[in-house]
């Protein structure tokens, strides 16, 4: 009997034909590494098995399932939120630079949180509410000033950069004007960090983010029609301005809630939709793939932040902004060509 050899696995072919599967595989690998790699865990197969079966000692169980798992869940849900927010705005402006990082919506959310802290103290839900209002206010400013017989994607980006610079200056003035304790709280928060995340803190916000993600997927068909052009979308029965405003509200809300929880985290919303689009080799951006890539990017960045220095944990925002700067230069050069 003749037995044919099993053909070798073609990794590039698998990635190009199953991008979501590969993203899921890498994400699961990062989940495993985040939970079981590092100090306080022996990393032996036996101890990992005890943790998975609930037979480990109390201290290791608390470290893994209370501290690390809550931080892991935060990275996954916020990464998905930022990825979808970036996909929404890049679809609206039809430009890979059209993300909340560039157009200033996360800076507006930061302004809202700073005002909330300065006026009412560091109260969690007031900070979330302030972030949403600040993000919506900055989006409204960009929408108004960029309007000139319609909305050009390039004009939205330029106006967004100007609004972002103005709000950044206002934020610095605000930090210098408040008390030292409030300024230190704002400065630590502004770095963007997942330190101190607990289940009681993230679960209510996760429900809010899930609701906005659900709204984004409900508007996905309309968003795809808008990508074909305003005239085409209107001819197909879509209310262009109403749909654009609803999408902007959902995108800003996702960024604002994420910013209120961890502080501003750059790069994820900018890069996730474009990486997903290249993996899928598609012309448009996909909300589902952008969410998966966003989760993987933020989880990976946080893993680096936790382990790049042996004795300290860096804010994840420092890692993402470093990577984001390099990626932004690449995008600008690519768009220039």
UniProtKB/TrEMBL annotation:
<feature type="transmembrane region" description="Helical">
    <location>
        <begin position="313"/>
        <end position="333"/>
    </location>
</feature>
<feature type="transmembrane region" description="Helical">
    <location>
        <begin position="72"/>
        <end position="93"/>
    </location>
</feature>
<feature type="transmembrane region" description="Helical">
    <location>
        <begin position="105"/>
        <end position="123"/>
    </location>
</feature>
<feature type="transmembrane region" description="Helical">
    <location>
        <begin position="21"/>
        <end position="41"/>
    </location>
</feature>
<protein>
    <submittedName>
        <fullName>Iron chelate uptake ABC transporter family permease subunit</fullName>
    </submittedName>
</protein>
<keyword id="KW-1003">Cell membrane</keyword>
<keyword id="KW-0472">Membrane</keyword>
<feature type="transmembrane region" description="Helical">
    <location>
        <begin position="129"/>
        <end position="147"/>
    </location>
</feature>
<dbReference type="Pfam" id="PF01032">
    <property type="entry name" value="FecCD"/>
</dbReference>
<keyword id="KW-0812">Transmembrane</keyword>
<dbReference type="InterPro" id="IPR000522">
    <property type="entry name" value="ABC_transptr_permease_BtuC"/>
</dbReference>
<comment type="similarity">
    <text>Belongs to the binding-protein-dependent transport system permease family. FecCD subfamily.</text>
</comment>
<feature type="transmembrane region" description="Helical">
    <location>
        <begin position="283"/>
        <end position="301"/>
    </location>
</feature>
<keyword id="KW-0813">Transport</keyword>
<keyword id="KW-1133">Transmembrane helix</keyword>
<dbReference type="InterPro" id="IPR037294">
    <property type="entry name" value="ABC_BtuC-like"/>
</dbReference>
<feature type="transmembrane region" description="Helical">
    <location>
        <begin position="154"/>
        <end position="178"/>
    </location>
</feature>
<feature type="transmembrane region" description="Helical">
    <location>
        <begin position="245"/>
        <end position="271"/>
    </location>
</feature>
<feature type="transmembrane region" description="Helical">
    <location>
        <begin position="198"/>
        <end position="219"/>
    </location>
</feature>
